[in-house]
């Protein structure tokens, strides 16, 4: 790896390594004396002297140069990028193509010397000089190993499947912790995970049936079958996934959980893995946690200006509890992370208790609940109260003990965030009553409740306009004699894989508590009474927010009706 002189405003490599406690001043002095004799980069000398590893050098050099660094031993390479760059060019300039975005004509390249202008010019020349290149830093030996590993092997799913059909599986190499890329099953799992990430899937399902293996991706909230393979492939594939996620490969009769971290297309992606025994074999589901997409700015979560102002007023309150409700997969975690990111600053201590932690956040103390350590939500909050927190996030209020601790924290000067599984914001009140929270405790301590769902966005390339019919006009709350209204419905094209939709957006309702609602809660008023009081103050329901999206043309009436009950409006 080349050590180029850092820019004047960058900290020197040696100072970074000393500050990290990796080397001593004496070790740096020895390396500098050797540099006077050999004229080699000081970073390379520190490695050759055995003071640091190449991985340590890579990360420190990345910090010094202000560049991202990548661990190629946990990276998955895009076959399209490999096809564009000849192996001899990659070897000569110590670089490895990681990802190629055809639509944006952009390539991500791992390189040992980020100042190798000749290498970048040659890459652009391969694609008529208009290629946009993003570089990340990697170690020389890492790149050399990766070039030998990836070049010369079939990396497409169809090609790998053909290779499996005509060859034999080396079970010993599958059970090894190292990546044996000569094994097609290893490449097959990598190819499937890469494909899922590139298609913006949230989950990958491996579902064994009696005679075949079904592979499905959850894309935009709906499962879609991608492949059906012969069942004989599955045992080797399951072993490979278990090895990657540190599961017990010999255990097939009990549920297991694991986690995988990979670098895909130049970015770090985590997979939460769950294996469940079924009558036809182990069912494995991987939840994709893409850190690049993890934190959405608060003003981009889908609220219009009045809603955003309401939410900001809620989170400006110094104490009390804010709840986010909705079914699994409705975006509650994304909303909570956006709020925490918005309020995160040096002057406050934010602590979270999650099951599990999905996205690491800087300056926030995050803890996963753990059955092995007997740490549940209630015990975790009790412990956090002794950590001088200003803000506490409790992943979910599931029982009376957790609810008691969450409200106790809210009543003692803390701002508390949590989630509930209810169908609406107003439905959070009877749910808390069922759990065992007293009305007098709720009244005055709940700042507000956010309920949300995710609806699919119409593909902008193929959505089709049409004139709204009379029953649709009534659903939208418009009179029959209004001028014809243009709505849009799904069609399908190559941009959306012929689904008619691409991506999702949130629809939300915000219930901000006030003295009148607190009084209704204290006297156990019905949901109907509370909703009427909220509507009098401008409350907008999930259905109304969904229909706002329909009028905007960003989604269809059919899609909103799929996730929200519109029958009351008929």
From TrEMBL:
UniProt keyword ATP-binding present: yes
A single GO cellular-component term on record: plasma membrane
GO molecular function, one term: ATP binding
A Pfam family the protein falls into: MshEN
Keyword annotations of the record: ATP-binding, Nucleotide-binding
InterPro entries: AAA+_ATPase, P-loop_NTPase, T2SS/T4SS_dom, T2SS_E_N_sf, T2SS_GspE_N
Residues of the Bacterial type II secretion system protein E domain: 385-399
PANTHER family according to UniProt: COMG OPERON PROTEIN 1, TYPE II SECRETION SYSTEM PROTEIN GSPE-RELATED
Family that this chain belongs to: Belongs to the GSP E family.
UniProt name for this protein: Type II/IV secretion system protein
Organism of origin: Candidatus Desulfobacillus denitrificans
Taxonomic path: Bacteria, Pseudomonadati, Pseudomonadota, Betaproteobacteria, Candidatus Desulfobacillus
